[in-house]
Structures
1.
Amino acid sequence: MIALEQVRFGYDGRRVLEGLSIDVPRGQLLGVIGPNGAGKSTVVRLLLGLLAPQSGRVLIKGRPVADYSRREFARIVAAVTQEEALEFPFNALEVVLMGRIAHLGPLGFEREADLTVARLAMQQTGVEALADRPLYTLSGGERKRVLLARALAQDPELLVLDEPVAALDIHHQIAIFDLLKDRHERGVTVVVVVHDLNLAAAYCERLLLVRPGAPALIGTVEEILTYRLVKETFGVEVYVGVNELTGARFLLPMSPR
């Protein structure tokens, strides 16, 4: 579904990604982790074609991202980025319906089926009661869930999400990741930037660890979330354990004192 081939990218002479090569098969849930400023959002922007690699290639379904028309790309890929500027006073339902634009007919009008898909996405993300509220009146967490509903309404083959649970309480964090897991189990490929290593361990099949000044690493949760790698990358002492109920790894930060 995704291939990055020897991708290099930097800002103002500072190298962020150096020879990054990964393959993400269809239907996988890949978590992107790493410290602040390491290049996680850069990976997202490259996947979405918002940045072009300075060398190497970014391929979606075997085609360079730059080769897609915007409509073609929107039929395959949906995204939630960290910062989205919606200048007009759209209400929440209107924003979610924007996810249907690539699927509209020649006249560009929403059909009843599009409205049904949008309302279902809002129900799944818990924002159906906000349908008539202008986006600017919503809290950060509510806005994030509306934007996720828009991405789900797009009915994509690939979801690319940059910190989708930032500003959400623990209840909604779990609900959103359950939703992403459901989509992944239905064959949708999911790439998600996540800061919470315990969420990454509980839900992701594989992890891409982006490290400042060192090559990125990709592997299973067990291969990436080790005491040594976490300490080297994040500079903290952690206890790495296994949940007896789920079998998932969990991490507890420990004070050096």
2.
Amino acid sequence: MARIVTIGGALQDIYFIDRDDFVSTEIGNQSIFGQLIIGSKVDIDNISYEIGGGGVNSAVTFARHGHETITFSNIAHDSAGEAIVSRLDEEGIDTSFINFVPRKNTGCSAILLDVKSGERTILTHRGASSKTDNFKADDLSLINPDWLYATTLGGNMNTLMDFFEKAHSIGTKVMFNPGVLELQNSKQLIGLLSETDVLLVNKSEASKIVTGETLSELIYRLSNYVKTVIITDSSTGGIATNGSETYRFGIYEDTKVKDTTGAGDAFGSGFLASLASGKSFKDSLIFASANSTSVVTKLGANRGALTGKEKLHQMPIQLL
């Protein structure tokens, strides 16, 4: 098994679950929750407290796979922060590098979930997770991990570069799943890609980094910067290359979606969890898809994360 460090957000996710009040209404090419009237009081069917954030979601998959997992995140000394640490402890994740930020609340998301459709709207307060300049890249030398799995740091490119450069100086490989704010800073992002071993983006995100209309065009151009690139494409699957093999893959299975929160984190961490266990590139893509599929069938961004011990069935995947 490997030693893996995750860096990214840690939030408490509070689900407000209902069957009829969150029904969508179409306005032009947009869908909104059209049954909520301003000034009214709405009785909902259920509520659930979960944990989420890119750093936390990926850490859960790694730990369940048996990897030694350490996470870098920011929380506060409050009930939400306590809930996050308690759950990470249950999963066997090392929380000694989590920072407690003063005068902040732990990040929190209110998720309005329509049970019938599985669609949700997320109201997020980043809180302590919005602070990203207190992470110390030199701490990687104390941990000496095999992999660094980086999610969004709210566009803090300097901290990401510090971690990526430190990682490679000590022989640690880097997998990167950038967020919206990282993608907005294209020049510095290209610099980060030179220090990235595995890049995970969706098709829309890929088109913000390089030009191209098709998955083949996008992955060809991204592979000029990163050896291993994975591009997902919503419910159709995606494409991936490691420099010697290129695969076009579909979805693991067509299943009823309960909650799509955390699907991308589950795919990325599922891929690395399998790869770091010594599985092939192809098998790691299959596990990534299976892990993402399992997560969306459960409530919460990581409750459905697999362990790697499950017997998986075949899925559409073709060597190009």
3.
Amino acid sequence: MANDGVDLKRRRFLTAATSVVGGVGAVYLAVPFVASMQPSARAKAAGAPVEADISKLEPGQMMTVEWRGVPVWIVRRSEATLADLPALNSQLRDPDSDNPDQQPSYCKNINRSIKPEYLIAVGICTHLGCSPSYHPEMGGELGADWKGGFFCPCHGSRFDLSGRVFQGVPAPTNLRVPPHHYLTESRVLVGLDEKGAA
């Protein structure tokens, strides 16, 4: 017989033990490799929602927070500014913000906001990605009919104080409104809405 002197039980045991040790070794090698594919804590923080205290913003003032590596403006608008918004509709490319990519559905209104007095918008021009400057004053160098808003110095795009783009400028769409919600009367969370959507 060919199996004379061979202990089959011992052979099965050694085969099973070797397989188990090899499997455990493969797991130990795979764990660091798979872990290296996960985003770093810094990368996770860069995309995390940002909380802002708006309690000290006076009408006409703007603050900037950074979310996902881009500036997000929070502007407190005055009653006069809000009253002027409908008068601009005929001068705007998309006064009703019909493009659904421009803002969450809960901000599809003339103010493009949850609370009328606060505009929260990504501070990047929708033309080529420059950062427009804030010009809240009426008239002045931007023309007698200027009622305040944002002017992009790169190619001349203009946006009103709801972030709506004017006609005849290079920017194709309104400024983007990020998901957000109010934690309290004076604190807003940018980057996450009440339902948890980012």
4.
Amino acid sequence: MKTLLVQYIPNKRSKTKVLIDAFRQAIGDMEIEVLDLCNDVPDLFSPAALEAYYARIDGDIEHGVPVPVLAKMDRMTAQLKACDIVVVAFPMYNFSMPATVKAWFDSVMLHGDTFTNHPRGGYRGLMTDKKALILVAASGTYSTGSDGIGGLFGPTWEHAVSLAQTEFRFMGFADIRGVLAESMARRGEIAQRNLNQAAEQVRSIVQEWYGSELVTQELAATV
């Protein structure tokens, strides 16, 4: 089972890193591929990239033929297609995902690779044999509407995990889980309790998805 970890942790104090650490500790010595978006920044859809992308969709450029302006997008898409499980981890920025993470999603949501036209109209995802785990830490509590001035924040103010879930669902992922650690800016026990609960969720998902491989790993370690 091949795992790809896509992470964006620009701040060493980020609580999202705690969730990543919980995941990595839970899977033990299993090998994972890491894409650090802080060091390998996704390309944006520039006018030239869009022109080449639509030329490929229209058939003017044969699919599979290298196109320099799309090279990094093609590489990141191939990386996603090659994995069985993808873990995407990032902090919430202004109720949603950081621009760099959105650029990664834009890079890998390519027609003909991760989705295509549906025979009856619309689109269908091609990643139907894959699983996705989204790890996010947020300073406030936006999923329940309990933060904010004058009750301004409501359930619709959480657009980080929910947007990532929508992106993966569009690509056809079979199993999509989201872990959101909220209220990280709170003082006292609330933040730590929420973080601990989120980390436990991560461990539970790892046990469900990797259980048999973890047992095999443990048995091999005793031989």
